[in-house]
C-alpha cells in the first residue's frame, strides 16, 4: 500500500501528513491551528511541485493575519463593521480585521479542530477534522463544521466541507478556502490564469459589494502587469467550474475545480499580492457580505446540513 498518514512536529505544532510514497504527493494539515493546510505537493512528470505559499515558521503561521490557506466559516471575507441582520434580528460580530473596521474570515480559523477519522486505502488516504461553534459572540447558533482532506492515487487533492445546524433555530452559513498558490520558483508575471466567469462583483472603497458588472477579459490572460482583487460569479453550466493557473515554461497547469449549483461554490475571489509572489484563488459558497445581502447565503434549518467539494490537480 503506497499511502500512509503520520504525525510530525512543526515547532510546537503537531502536523498530520497524508503521503503517497509512490509519487511523493503529500498534504500537510495542522488540526490544532484551524485545520489549516500548510503544504500541498503534487507531481507532474518528473517534477514535484510545492503549490501553497504559507508562512515559513511555526510562529509566523500562528501570527498570520492574512489567512494563508485557512478555512473560513461561517462567513468569508468582510462583514462591514461586523454588523448584519438575519431574519429580522440584528447581530454584531467582533471587528477582527487589521485596522478594526470589519469582521473578517469567520470563527473557526486558528481554533483547535478535533480529529474525527484517519483512513488509508489502496487508492486514497483521508483525514477528517471538525469544530463546533456554540453560541459565539455575534453568532448565537450551534453549528458543527467538518472538513475532509483526501489525496487520491491519480494525484487529485480533495477538500470537502460539511456544516450541520445542531441548534433549534435557522442559521446563516458561508464557507470559503483561502489558499495562496505558487508554481515552482517561477514569477507570477510568467503565468496565465483562466477564470470561468462572465460577471464580477463591484466593490466600494471598503471592499464591500455594491453590484455586479460584465467581466469581458479574454481568457486565459497573462498575469504580467495585471492586478486582481475581485470576486467573480461562476459560470455554472455544469456541476463544476474550473479555474486554471498556467505555466507554459514549465508545461504545467494547476486546476482548481469547485462544485457549483444550489448551495455550492458559486463564487470565486482572485487576488494578486503586491509582492507578486503568488496568486490567491479562493472558492466561496456565497458573495462577500452575504450575511447582509443574502447573495448565495445558505440558510440551514435545524438538523439540516450543507456540503461542497474543491478538487486540486496538475495537468
Automatic annotation (TrEMBL):
Pfam family, one: Aldose_epim
Superkingdom of origin: Bacteria
Keyword list, A-Z: Calcium
Cofactor section: Ca(2+)
SUPFAM superfamilies: Galactose mutarotase-like
Complex formation: Monomer.
Name listed for the protein in its UniProt record: Aldose 1-epimerase
Organism of this sequence: Dyadobacter beijingensis
Amino acid at each position: 500500500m503506497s499511502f500512509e498518514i503520520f504525525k510530525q512536529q512543526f515547532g510546537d505544532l503537531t502536523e498530520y501528513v497524508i503521503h503517497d510514497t509512490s509519487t511523493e504527493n503529500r498534504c500537510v494539515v495542522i488540526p490544532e491551528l484551524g485545520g489549516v493546510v500548510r503544504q500541498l505537493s503534487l507531481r507532474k512528470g518528473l517534477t514535484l511541485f510545492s503549490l501553497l505559499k504559507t508562512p515559513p515558521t511555526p510562529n509566523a503561521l500562528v501570527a498570520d493575519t492574512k489567512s494563508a490557506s485557512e478555512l473560513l466559516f461561517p462567513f468569508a471575507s468582510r462583514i462591514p463593521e461586523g454588523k448584519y441582520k438575519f431574519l429580522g434580528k440584528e447581530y454584531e460580530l467582533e471587528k477582527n480585521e487589521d485596522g478594526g473596521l470589519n469582521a473578517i474570515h469567520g470563527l473557526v480559523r486558528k481554533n483547535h479542530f478535533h480529529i474525527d477519522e484517519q483512513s488509508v486505502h489502496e487508492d486514497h488516504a483521508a483525514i477528517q477534522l471538525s469544530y463546533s461553534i456554540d453560541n459565539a459572540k455575534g453568532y448565537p447558533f450551534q453549528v458543527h463544521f467538518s472538513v475532509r482532506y483526501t489525496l487520491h492515487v491519480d494525484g487529485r487533492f480533495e477538500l470537502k466541507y460539511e456544516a450541520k445546524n445542531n441548534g433549534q433555530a435557522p442559521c446563516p452559513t458561508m464557507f470559503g478556502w483561502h489558499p495562496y498558490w505558487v508554481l515552482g520558483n517561477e514569477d507570477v508575471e510568467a503565468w496565465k490564469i483562466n477564470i470561468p466567469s462572465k460577471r464580477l462583483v463591484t466593490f466600494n472603497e471598503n471592499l464591500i459589494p455594491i453590484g455586479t458588472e460584465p467581466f469581458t477579459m479574454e481568457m486565459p490572460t497573462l498575469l504580467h502587469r495585471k492586478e486582481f482583487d475581485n470576486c467573480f460569479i461562476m459560470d455554472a453550466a455544469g456541476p463544476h467550474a474550473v479555474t486554471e493557473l498556467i505555466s507554459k515554461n514549465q508545461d504545467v497547469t494547476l486546476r482548481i475545480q469547485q462544485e457549483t449549483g444550489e448551495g455550492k461554490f458559486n463564487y470565486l475571489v482572485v487576488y494578486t499580492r503586491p509582492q507578486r509572489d503568488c496568486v490567491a484563488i479562493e472558492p466561496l459558497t456565497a458573495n462577500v457580505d452575504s450575511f447582509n445581502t443574502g447573495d448565495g447565503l445558505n440558510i440551514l434549518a435545524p438538523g439540516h446540513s450543507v456540503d461542497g467539494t474543491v478538487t486540486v490537480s496538475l495537468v
